[in-house]
Amino acid sequence: MTQHPSLPADLSNPGDYAWEIATRFPTQGHWSESDYFALLDQAGSKGFELVDGRIEVLPLPTRIHQLLGKFLFLALNAFVESAGLGEVHYSGLRFRVRNGRIREPDVIFLSASRMHLARNKAFDGADLCIEVVSGSAEDRQRDYVDKATDYSSRGVAEYWIVDPDERHVIVNRLEGQRYVEHGRFREGDSAASVLLDGFSVDVGELFAVIEGVEG
């Protein structure tokens, strides 16, 4: 049965109005996919992932995060569209790893041959995912470990980790049910895809878009 948080004893504080929203949803550990999508409809659609009955709140995007994500999306989308290879989407479109576990990649590619897995709110498959790493230890754990486990378990052929703090791009390729590192690329290198022959990103040009961005 869905469990809801109890109301605070004193509702006289005007700030307590948020409980009217909070009590419409379950407590951690009891979220269903329908609860999750209802939250997205009310919360402006972005910034939450569903992980085995729990909601994970993603960090607010920074300018650095958005600039890097935009560069990668535009580069990959141009390559894919020019050859009619499938669809590329930016953060906001979700990926159902399995029932009850939904991620929100920064960039996601689904090949034309697998478009039967495309859904309106969440893809049921992906061929390549890209994550731009945020700064906190929790966020780094999510991108380097948790999402690598999720994406490999769902058969995502390639997973890129873009780390602005370390100034590198890691391209992981799927072997069996786990990722192996195809390459760790730094400025002066081109990060090259294994899956998409001919697609690469100049790492220097990528990180140049955040030069001079403060705070």
Using the coordinates shown, work out and report the CATH topology of the largest domain: tt1808, chain A
* Fourth-level CATH superfamily of the largest domain: tt1808, chain A
Rg measurement, Å: 19 Å
Question: Widest sheet: strand order?
Answer: 3-6-8-9-10-11
Stretches where pLDDT is under 50 for at least 5 consecutive residues are: 1-9, 14-21
CATH architecture of the largest domain: Alpha-Beta Complex
Q: Give the distance, in angstroms, between the N- and C-terminal Cα atoms.
A: 45 Å
Number of strands: 13
Query: What structural category do the secondary elements indicate?
Result: alpha+beta
Number of helices, counting only DSSP H or I runs of 4 residues or more: 5
Q: State the name of the first-level CATH class of the largest domain.
A: Alpha Beta
- Would you tell me the overall average pLDDT? 86
Number of domains: 2
Largest sheet: 6 strands, mixed
Shape: globular
Beta-strand content bin: 25-35%
- Topology as a string of helices (H) and strands (E): HHEEHEEEEEEHEEEEEH
